[in-house]
Design a protein that fits this description.
Helix content: 10-25%
Structural class: alpha+beta
Low-confidence stretches: none
Distance between the termini: 19 Å
Largest sheet: 5 strands, antiparallel
Strand order of the largest sheet: 1-4-10-7-6
Strand content: 35-45%
Number of strands: 10
């Protein structure tokens, strides 16, 4: 459950549930749009920089093993997410099957701390 560890230790999380839309603009300025179907949610997750290497090395290895072809189940179980639950953005106990489509690289700095080159991006797997 390497993806769940990322969710549990996130510094920031953004959830995008907007539908994918195809759009055209005619010469006269008329805009036409159509839904391209259900796309599921996209989760953009940033881990904090400065986590001690000796504490996260095993998790990094697990993340790299899962890579960008594994589907894993995630849930928002961290107590910090209760505001999202109370505001109706998430349902308590809700889970999603996700695949990682963007995986940042990690770097060791100051001898024992880990930094990340960017955010992890997970797409809901609707298959």
């Amino acid at each position: 459950m390497s993806f769940q560890w990322i969710i549990d230790h996130a510094e920031t999380i953004a959830i995008d549930s907007k539908a994918m839309v195809g759009q055209t603009i005619a010469r006269d300025g008329t805009v036409r749009a159509t839904s391209r179907g259900t796309t599921g949610k996209t989760f953009t997750v940033k881990l904090p920089n400065g986590m001690p290497w000796n504490e996260v090395a095993t998790q990094i290895q697990s993340i790299e093993s899962a890579n960008r072809f594994s589907v894993e189940t995630i849930a928002f179980t961290n107590a910090g997410y209760t505001n999202w639950l109370h505001n109706g953005m998430l349902s308590s106990g809700q889970t999603w099957n996700v695949i990682c489509v963007t995986m940042p690289t990690w770097t060791i700095f100051q001898r024992n701390q880990v930094s990340w080159s960017g955010a992890f991006v997970f797409h809901e797997n609707l298959v």
